Amino acid sequence: MGFLVAFLPMVLFGLAEQAHAQAGQTVLRAGDILNVNVWPNTELSGEFRIEEDGYVYLPLLAEVRAAGGVVAREGAVLVVHRPRYDDWSLPKGKLEDGESWEEAALREVLEETGVGCRLLRELDEDHYTDNKGRLKRVRWWLMEAVALDLREPDGEEVDDVRWLPFADAVALLSYAHDRGLVAGLADA
Questions:
Q1: Model pTM greater than 0.70?
Q2: How do beta strands 63-73 and 135-148 pair?
Q3: Where are the domains of the chain?
């Protein structure tokens, strides 16, 4: 992961040190720990050390990482309904610690739909701000179904799973990027 230099260069650090000393407050020095709350509940919040050069290094970008699949078979595509958002989308979800993008995509499709797949090729990724104001990156793969599990959706995360012809899926999907992925397959 890259890093961004926060706004505590030596000049500003020196000015802050003088201001704190004049006000009778504790002086911050290299090695001290700062509690930073740039973006709550992300990599841009927490405790960070002031380095010898007077900078605090924060992660470049706090992003939610997710992966998913466009599962196609015989002119149809797999779509899911999420009751929490009352939307229709392609199956996807967040990466777990230590999991690769590809592993997450396969796991999420299986968990949400009961369809075991194999990856065919990577598709266009998507970037947007989620409902909590965090940057979200979603990587997508075209997938082929290799095993079907006839279990019912859990009802919490997903409450309906459908195989739809490409045109019907494009009409039903709630998000432009999802529609574009499916439409691109229909045109291929």
A1: no
A2: parallel
A3: 3-59, 63-187
List the pLDDT tens digit at each of the 188 positions of the chain: 333 334 333 333 443 444 444 445 556 677 777 676 655 545 556 676 777 777 766 555 568 999 999 999 999 999 999 999 999 999 999 999 899 999 999 999 999 999 999 999 999 999 888 887 778 999 999 999 999 887 777 788 999 999 999 999 999 999 999 999 999 987 76
Structural tokens at position 35: 């509690």
CATH fold of the domain at 63-187: Nucleoside Triphosphate Pyrophosphohydrolase (3.90.79)
Rounded Cα–Cα distance for residues 98 and 103 (Å): 10
Please, are residues 109 and 139 in contact by the beta-carbon 8 Å criterion?
A: no
